[in-house]
Amino acid sequence: DTTVKQNPRYKLARVGKPVNLICSQTMNHDTMYWYQKKPNQAPKLLLFYYDKILNREADTFEKFQSSRPNNSFCSLYIGSAGLEYSAMYLCASSRGLGGGEQYFGPGTRLTVL
Amino acid sequence: GDSVTQTEGQVTVSESKSLIINCTYSATSIGYPNLFWYVRYPGEGLQLLLKVITAGQKGSSRGFEATYNKEATSFHLQKASVQESDSAVYYCALTPNYNQGKLIFGQGTKLSIKP
Predict the structure, then answer these.
(1) Does residue A48 sit at the B interface (CB-CB below 8 Å)?
(2) B108 touching A (Cβ < 8 Å)
(3) What is the DSSP letter of B74?
(4) Across the strands, what pairs with A87?
(5) Which end of chain A has the least Cβ crowding within 10 Å, N or C?
(6) Do you find a cis peptide bond into A8, omega within 30 degrees of 0?
(7) Looking at the predicted structure, is the pLDDT value of residue A46 above 70?
(8) Closest CA to B108 of B89, B95, B88, B82
């Protein structure tokens, strides 16, 4: 089974409110990733967990948090949503750092109003 | 920094005709990046189509091919005869030499097939 699941598939949030997105995988992969995808833009890496170590991209460091309570689950947390957070959020996983071979979930579409 | 460029946002090709989707990259780190094509079919998640890690080599999968051209810094995707089932969004990507876990994507090219 090479499935990565994301919940919910669609999320509506209010400006200023927190948002928590969930991802799970059953492949026992070491690494889980979160990407942000806006219309007509490339998917952009936000952060990834390699085992228990969180690596966040420098330009989005303060905007997103994440936790990984166990190997299978990873969350993406926004403390105070702004309109600019409206996007598709893609979760992926890989064995080790994968050399670029990542397995993606279907995405969660977040709309902030 | 490293980047990937796909110049066409949308391409329409008639069924059984040939296809080329252009991809060029810029890699500022020492050494050569790994290059990838990912595909997103309607209603599904992104999935790896093909991968090439050695300059000069060709990757192929499901009738698609791409050659790692380090002189031209290109990795164009080609198929000799497209089918309706190839309708999808195609993303060119690289992982820089300094961080094999970081996929850097192009903006994607939506392929539509005319029956």
Answers:
(1) yes
(2) yes
(3) B
(4) A110
(5) N
(6) yes
(7) yes
(8) B89
Name the stretches of chain B with pLDDT < 50: none
Say whether residue B109 is in contact with chain A using an 8 A CB cutoff. Answer: no
Q: What share of chain B is helix, strand, coil (3-state, %, to 5)?
A: 5, 50, 50
Q: Phi and psi (nearest 5°) for A99?
A: 60, 25
Q: Tabulate helix, strand, coil % of chain A (nearest 5).
A: 10, 55, 40
pLDDT of A38 above 90: yes
Interface of A with B in 89-108 (CB under 8 A): 90, 92, 94, 97-107
pLDDT digits (tens, 9 = 90+) for B2-21: 999 999 999 999 999 999 99
Task: Please give the pLDDT value at position A23.
Answer: 97
State whether residue A100 is helix, strand or coil: helix
Q: Which residues pair with A49 in a beta bridge?
A: A32, A54
Per-window interface: B 25-64 vs A, CB < 8 A: 34, 36, 38, 43-48, 51, 53
3-state secondary structure of B20: strand
